[in-house]
Amino acid sequence: MHETFTRLLAGNDAHADEFRSKFDDLQDAQFPDAVTVCCADSRVLQDRMWGNDDPGHLFTCGNIGNRVVQEVGGEQVVSGDVLYPVEHTGTETVVVVGHTGCGAVTATYADLTDGIDEPAGIRRCLDLLAPHVGPGVEALPDDLSDAEAVNYLVEYNVDRQVAFLCDSDEVPDSVTIYGVVYDFQDVYSERRGEVQVINVDGERDPETLREEHPGFADRVRRLWTY
């Protein structure tokens, strides 16, 4: 019955041995270089996708649909999970990470087009996503397969989450906001696990992004320009 958890603890043994000295300078404070907002999905390894094995480098947030929003008093505001490192640790880089085949986007798409029945907690998450994904559903090109439509909407959702941060008075102008898609389904290329840059501070035109950011021009790819 407890085999899975026992395996997790065995893995933690190795982790504790390896990381014994890596917390020496981090026990009393953290100053992460970036905050990443990833979809909560077992296939999306939030630190490892960046090759990161160092504590204190990334402030990782995860939820279904890589949302930067939460609702307070009937109003959508920047989630405290995202805002905390910006407000309190001096972090000036935010990365919104969508991924191919996203289940949350798939469910939101299905709910907006056909309606689906979900438990209250999942329903709440879909209700937070729907206002951001809905306009994209209306704008989708004709004759897409469901899988293609979902991956177009993955980009659209990332764009909308980036736009929400850019438009918020709570996020200082000094913060740079990147929108990316993590691809493990050979949608953008055959290099599984590669991150594709689709948005920087609200700019989503690929040619403009390549011109403005030559350092990662080869990683700028979009499925959908609308």
Please give the structural blueprint.
Layout: H1 3-19, E1 34-39, E2 58-63, E3 69-72, E4 75-78, H2 80-88, E5 93-99, H3 103-113, H4 120-139, H5 146-167, E6 176-183, E7 194-200, H6 206-212
Give the helix/strand class.
Answer: alpha/beta
Termini separation comes to 50 Å
Strand content: 15-25%
CATH superfamily placement: Carbonic anhydrase
Q: How many beta-strand elements?
A: 7
CATH topology: Beta-carbonic Anhydrase, Chain A
- How many domains in all? 1
**What about the largest sheet?**
5 strands, mixed
Stretches where pLDDT is under 50 for at least 5 consecutive residues are none
The averaged pLDDT comes out at 96
Shape: globular
Helix percentage range: 25-40%
Radius of gyration: 18 Å
In CATH, the architecture is 3-Layer(aba) Sandwich
The largest sheet has its strands arranged as: 2-1-5-6-7
What is the CATH C level class, in words? Alpha Beta
Q: Given the structure, what is the number of helices?
A: 6
